[in-house]
Amino acid sequence: MLQAIHHVAIICADYARSKHFYTEILGLQVIQEVYREERQSYKLDLALAGHYVIELFSFPAPPERPSRPEAAGLRHLAFAVADIDAVIARLHTKGVDTEPIRIDKYTGKRFTFFSDPDGLPLELYEV
């Protein structure tokens, strides 16, 4: 039986830029970083609040993947936050634009979207 989601794997176009974004801007912690010579690829394991959540990969010349509007496949990656206004303010100070805050009509919770350096849609969801 399934127990939980173990991690999300993301292939980035510019490894240094994405590593900076996920670690310095979003604040994820590096667990391990390896270079896989046979694949000419970095693999960066990242944690959020001590839990392994993201594998960030680099590959030579990865093909682009459509992400908006509403392309088939993974729609977005959502992060739970306690204070959405504070997180948005922090992102804005680091040059990250966010969409206007919306209200989930079923839960009444506030949420917004922004993008990683490759245009992957990311969500902040206030819990």
What can you tell me about this protein's structure?
It is globular and about 50 Å long. The protein contains 2 helices and 8 strands. The chain is an alpha/beta fold and 127 residues long. It folds into 2 domains: 61 residues, Roll (2,3-Dihydroxybiphenyl 1,2-Dioxygenase, domain 1), CATH 3.10.180; 53 residues, 2,3-Dihydroxybiphenyl 1,2-Dioxygenase, domain 1 (Roll). A hairpin with a 2-residue loop joins strand 3 and strand 4.
Key phrases:
2 domains, 2 helices, 127 residues, 2,3-Dihydroxybiphenyl 1,2-Dioxygenase, domain 1, 8 strands, metal ion binding, four-stranded mixed β-sheet, alpha/beta
Given this structure, which CATH class of the largest domain is correct? Alpha Beta
Poorly predicted regions are none
CATH names the topology of the largest domain as 2,3-Dihydroxybiphenyl 1,2-Dioxygenase, domain 1
Query: Could you say how many structural domains there are in total?
Result: 2
Describe the secondary structure blueprint for this structure.
Elements lengths: L7 E5 L2 H11 L3 E8 L4 E8 L2 E8 L18 E5 L2 H10 L8 E2 L6 E6 L5 E6 L1
Brief digest:
With 127 residues, the chain is α/β, with parallel strands linked by helices. The protein is built from 2 helices and 8 strands.
